[in-house]
Amino acid sequence: MDTKVKTANQPKTGFGKWMVHTVIPNYANNVQGVVYMGAAILIIIVGLRGLGKVAGQIAIVPKFLLGVDGKIDPNWVMMALFLEFFLLLILSMVTFFTPEDSHGSVVEHSGKAVEKFGLDVTTIKQELSQLKGIAYEDLKVIDDYVEKMTQISKRLAHMNKEYLAAVYEVKQTYKADTFRAMAVEELKGIDVYVEKIAGLTQKITGIRNEYMKTMNELKQSFKV
Q1: What sign does the dihedral 81-86-90-96 (CA atoms) show?
Q2: Which of 22, 122, 128, 132 is the most exposed place for a label (fewest CB within 10 A)?
Q3: Is the pLDDT reported for residue 114 higher than 60?
Q4: What are the distances in angstroms from CA 10 to CA 6, 82, 188?
Q5: What domain range is 11 assigned to?
């Protein structure tokens, strides 16, 4: 089946063989470049012709292109048209004799690219898997770090709240005992007052120690 297809794609005339084996492999890109150049010339000539007498007032326009009426000579327009016509005719012949199988398939070109650059699909897949694993581990470490920082922030907020509550309680107690001292002449309740103040002081000290411990843990986390 493949032999029949290849035989059908092969040219049968001497001119066709010359086009397929000589012109197309060596000059196909050159023909396309010349055709584009002819199209550019045609666009310039026709465009300047459309400008009318304004084209004669442009300094960069060569004077030999101008006619007696100050416009682009129609002979140049015809020459550009015929030039582009013959160039397109040549390009059509090159395209006509280009074998269909010379373009190949996407899979074949991909295989050739892999062979050209010495790439191995299995190796690429393994490397991509390794990179994926490394990225997953990095994301896991970041997630753990963020979770840890969130817990520390919650602990700090809770300790700050307890600290403010303890300070407020100390102030209220101090005010109440001050008024009591002014109202009561005897200081029988001084022992209870001292014991209460000592308890509150111990509570504040505990909160402060826990706060400092948490701050040290936070600093260590930032260092890591």
Answers
A1: positive
A2: 122
A3: no
A4: 6, 32, 123
A5: 2-107
